[in-house]
Write a structure and sequence with these properties.
The chain is flat. It is an all-alpha fold. The chain folds into 3 domains: 35 residues; 28 residues; 53 residues. α3 packs across α5. The chain contains 5 helices and no strands.
Length: 164
Amino acid sequence: MKFNFKRNSQKSHVLERAKNNLWQKFEQANLRLQYKCANWLERKTAHFTRLNWILILLCFIVFTSSCSIYLIVRSFSANKTGNIIITPITKPTNLVPIKERRMELNIIISKTEFEKIASFRKYMDSLGRSPTGKKTYDSIVSDRPELLDSLTILENYYYSYLKN
C-alpha cells in the first residue's frame, strides 16, 4: 500500500514539474511578445514631438469625458427602453410540496455487521489520532466526506432497534 502512495507522489511531482515548466514557457513567451510590442510602438512614435503628445492626450481626455457624460445623462433620462428589466421570482402555481420525512429503515442490522461497523469506526479513529495515519485518514475523509456520518446513523439505528 505504501508503494502506491510513493508511486502516486512521484507522479504528482512529475506532473507538478511539468506544469511549472509549461507555465514558465508561457511567461517567457508573454515577455517576448511584450518586448516586441514595446519596441514596435517606440519605433512608430519616435518622431512625435512634445506638442503631438499633448494633442493626443487632450483628444483622449475629450473622447473619454464625452463618453462618460453621455452615459451619465442617458442613465438619468426618462427614456428607459435600453435598461435591463428585472422580473421578480414567483412561486409556481403547480408546485408539489415535498414533505421531508425521516428515513425509515426496515432492514435489520445483524450483530456481526454492527461489530464490523464498530471496528471500522475504531480503525478510523486510530488513524485520525496517529501522525502517520493522519494522511490516510484525511484522504479517506476527503474522498468520502459523508462516510463517518453514515456510520453514526447506522450505529444510532442499531441502538434504537435494540431499545425497541
